[in-house]
User: Which sequence fits this backbone?
């Protein structure tokens, strides 16, 4: 799988399909594999690009402080390297925060913006939860110990209780001791410091805001803050889900995303 | 405040007002002061009794493992001591677990049972959260860290975000360093080992089940099991709340209790 240099960071990416480009940006605790269902679903109609964020997977580690604006530069650099002039951008959680900086820096490169469980500024409970997760890893530098303190936040209680095998798989994924703790620490700080809330009025690109009713990390408070300020946005709420509604309500989420991309393509 | 011996444990309690007795049993992380709003609201019409559970406040510590059956015996002994033959028993969270065993052991003593944010057995996500809380206390050995790592599950995100002063008050209360850590650890196991799911059909008294839609500790899955299993039960769901709906939707919660007592008092 290819790696390209984007300046500060080398980025490992995958691409599949032909058509309008769609760039998928994952969140704080994931890597490009978070998007495999979307890649599979969208590649027949679009050129779909997913990549490991700096600090994740096979991309450059984040060994010094880096902000969401730096990650936006890396993502725009990836688009340059792939000769992509303009793309639909889909970001989940921290990936949505990165996408906001892309839209502010290079609006002409963004055809549409979709944000899943994201934030322009973490609200009080979201900031506390992210600070807690960062602190837990500093106290106990073990992903296996960290994982159970994180995964119960990702899904709604009904999903957690009904899907023990999926929860065990997610716990095993985030327990992978190969993940770089320094990168996580810097990127958690990047989330805590991300704040473009009062600049959202500048983003007049068509924007889709998706939130999970049960999500304590990027709660409906943070979604409503964005909706109040984005001039050209629509909101989709996943009533039964938390932070992982792309998985918890997979069918509805995929239909929402496919409908959104179709509506905003030529 | 009087302390009376109730067998294994000495129990500190308050009793206010006259009328049909109402016994209020708090949860794992509280003490009798959790009930001050209810005492104030009901003491004009009822004899309202609230105690520090064993392991809390000025009652005996729980320095060895103990079961919800034993705690039920303690509460029944307190009723004996106070000359209370029959009462409405209101239990929140762990207090509801205790209330179930009171109803199973001494049905003639329980006029009605009110289970607030409770469960017949802690479901998978609730177990994980209780284990996480115990781990944080064991790792850090202080209540301030525990409070910061627990508060977000007690209330819904919107409440947390909209009520910074209430959240600071909750964190200060549950972060109070005089609380007995050994008692907490023992009672955390007490809650985890509770299971009346096979005996719910034996709870014959009128039962009011109250639950928060967003509660991950005593989720709607546990609530639905009780509603289906207890033959003479009514269920009221607090749609905007988590584990602390008595505070989060205080007006509705107080009106629900008020109406229940009025209907169930001889």
Assistant:
């Amino acid at each position: 799988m290819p790696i390209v240099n984007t300046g500060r960071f080398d980025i490992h990416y995958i691409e599949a399909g032909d058509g309008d480009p769609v760039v998928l940006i994952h969140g704080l605790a994931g890597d490009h594999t978070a998007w495999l269902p979307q890649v599979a679903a969208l590649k027949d109609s679009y050129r779909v690009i997913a990549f490991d964020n700096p600090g994740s997977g096979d991309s450059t580690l984040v060994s010094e402080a880096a902000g969401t604006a730096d990650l936006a530069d890396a993502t725009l650099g990836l688009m340059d390297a792939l000769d992509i002039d303009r793309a639909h951008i889909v970001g989940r959680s921290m990936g949505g925060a990165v996408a906001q900086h892309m839209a502010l820096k290079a609006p002409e490169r963004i055809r549409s913006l979709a944000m899943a469980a994201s934030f322009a500024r973490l609200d009080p409970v979201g900031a506390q939860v992210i600070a807690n997760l960062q602190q837990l890893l500093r106290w106990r530098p073990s992903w296996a110990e960290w994982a159970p303190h994180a995964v119960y936040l990702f899904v709604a209680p009904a999903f957690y209780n009904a899907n023990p095998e999926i929860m065990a798989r997610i716990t095993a994924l985030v327990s992978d001791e190969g993940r770089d703790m320094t990168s996580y620490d810097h990127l958690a700080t990047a989330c805590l410091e991300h704040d473009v809330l009062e600049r959202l009025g500048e983003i007049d690109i068509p924007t889709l805001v998706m939130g999970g009713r049960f999500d304590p990390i990027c709660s409906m408070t943070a979604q409503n803050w964005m909706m109040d300020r984005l001039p050209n946005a629509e909101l989709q709420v996943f009533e039964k889900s938390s932070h992982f509604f792309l998985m918890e309500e997979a069918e509805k989420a995929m239909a929402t995303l496919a409908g959104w991309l179709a509506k905003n393509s030529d | 405040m009087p302390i009376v011996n109730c067998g294994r444990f000495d129990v500190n309690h308050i009793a206010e007002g006259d009328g049909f007795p109402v016994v209020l049993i708090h949860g794992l992380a509280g003490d009798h002061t959790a009930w001050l709003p209810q005492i104030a609201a009901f003491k004009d019409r009822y004899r309202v009794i609230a105690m520090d559970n064993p392991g809390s406040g000025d009652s005996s510590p729980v320095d060895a493992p103990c079961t919800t059956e034993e705690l039920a015996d303690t509460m029944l002994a307190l009723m004996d001591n106070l000359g209370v033959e029959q009462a409405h028993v209101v239990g929140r969270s762990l207090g509801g677990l205790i209330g179930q065993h009171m109803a199973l052991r001494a049905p003639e003593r329980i006029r009605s049972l009110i289970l607030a944010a409770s469960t017949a057995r802690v479901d998978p996500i609730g177990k994980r959260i209780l284990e996480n809380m115990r781990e944080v206390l064991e790792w850090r050995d202080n209540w301030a860290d525990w409070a910061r790592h627990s508060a977000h599950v007690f209330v819904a995100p919107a409440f947390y975000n909209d009520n910074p002063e209430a959240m600071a008050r909750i964190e200060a209360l549950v972060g109070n360093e005089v609380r007995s850590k050994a008692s907490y650890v023992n009672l955390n196991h007490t809650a985890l080992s509770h299971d009346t799911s096979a005996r719910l059909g034996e709870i014959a008294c009128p039962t009011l089940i109250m639950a928060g839609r967003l509660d991950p500790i005593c989720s709607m899955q546990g609530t639905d099991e009780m509603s289906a299993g207890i033959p003479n039960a009514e269920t009221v769901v607090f749609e905007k709340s988590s584990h602390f709906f008595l505070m989060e939707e205080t007006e509705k919660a107080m009106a629900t209790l008020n109406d229940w007592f009025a209907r169930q008092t001889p």
